Amino acid sequence: MAISLTSAAVDRIKNYSDTVSGNGVNLRIGVKKTGCNGYAYVINYSDKIEEDDQVFIDHDIKIIVDKTSLALIDGTEVDFYKEGLNEAFRFRNPNISGECGCGESFSI
Questions:
Q1: Percentage of residues in the chain with pLDDT exceeding 90?
Q2: What is the longest distance spanned by two Cα atoms in the chain?
Q3: How many CB atoms lie within 10 A of CB 72?
Q4: Of 65, 66, 89, 98, which has fewest CB within 10 angstroms of its CB?
Q5: What are the b/e assignments for 21-59, b being 16+ CB within 10 Å?
């Protein structure tokens, strides 16, 4: 079981954490039921680790995933892109069977 980060995602996370606290910030990744295909990714910065969370470390960044979400996103690579005024995290999830046209939701 693992969640990994690309170098672009690592740069974004580290730059953000430096501007916010200077102490480093953990990344919490999960899913919620929504959209036309069933699930959407949820990504937040968090220092709180719950008892049922799984923690992965990649490039000295703690990635926190709850057990329910991990079953749906195990093996996912998190990337970050910036194009013009648009910027966002992208997810390369090997478990998905389909995505909606806008890319906001996915199905397993």
A1: 28
A2: 40
A3: 19
A4: 98
A5: eeeebbbbbbbeeebebbbebebeeeeeeeeebbebebe
Residue 107 is assigned to a structural domain of this protein: no
CATH number at residue 37: 2.60.300.12
Q: Is residue 108 part of a domain?
A: no
Domain of 29, in residue numbers: 4-102
Q: What is the pTM of this model?
A: 0.81
Structure tokens at 27: 């990344």
End-to-end CA distance of the chain: 17
Rounded Cα distance between 72 and 80, Å, is: 20
Q: According to the model, what pLDDT value does residue 93 have?
A: 87
The alpha-helical segments, DSSP class H, found in the chain are 7-20, 67-73
Read off the pLDDT of residues 43-80 as tens digits, 9 standing for 90 and up. Answer: 888 888 899 999 998 888 889 999 999 989 999 999 99
